Amino acid sequence: MRHLRNHRVEGRKDEIRIHEPAGAPSVASLSKIEAMFDGHGAAALGEFFGKLQAASRFEPVMRFAVADPVTPGVYVAYRRFYSGMGGWHMLTIGPLGKLLKAYVGAIGTDEFFKLM
């Protein structure tokens, strides 16, 4: 899941949130820039990418919330919803590992918007 290398994970008391960079170039765009340098000036390019990343804002796109504090390991998966007023759209409930495998790979792809 190389496309997620610029994303951030935030652990809270009762949930896990995955954030994506907002207003920054996509990983595909950065890869094209990297290819243009063809290994030359790698240090300068690394410094540039570091500054770009440090200046990025991050917005939550997916979260996994504890379903029931009494039943450990069971979470509710939500994805960010952008239509209308926006907010969070509940996907399903289940063990955290199963939810992560089912949904995290879709972040940053067109498949993310098909999750319902």
Number of helices: 3
The side-by-side strand order for the widest beta sheet comes to 1-2-3-4-5
- Extended strand count: 5
Helix content: 25-40%
Task: Describe the global form.
Answer: elongated
Query: In total, how many domains does the architecture comprise?
Result: 1
Radius of gyration, rounded? 17 Å
Strand content: 25-35%
What is the CA-CA span between the terminal residues?
Answer: 21 Å
Largest sheet data: 5 strands, antiparallel
Topology as H/E string? Answer: EEHHEEEH
Uncertain spans: none
Description:
The chain has 3 helices and 5 strands, in the order ββααβββα. It starts with 7 loop residues before the first strand and ends in a 13-residue tail after the last helix. It has one domain (2-114). With 116 residues, the protein is an alpha+beta fold. The model has no long low-confidence stretch (mean pLDDT 83). The chain has helices at 27-37, 42-54, 96-103, and strands at 8-11, 15-22, 57-66, 74-81, 87-95.
Can I get a quick summary?
The chain is an alpha+beta fold and 116 residues long. Helix content is 28%, strand content 34%.
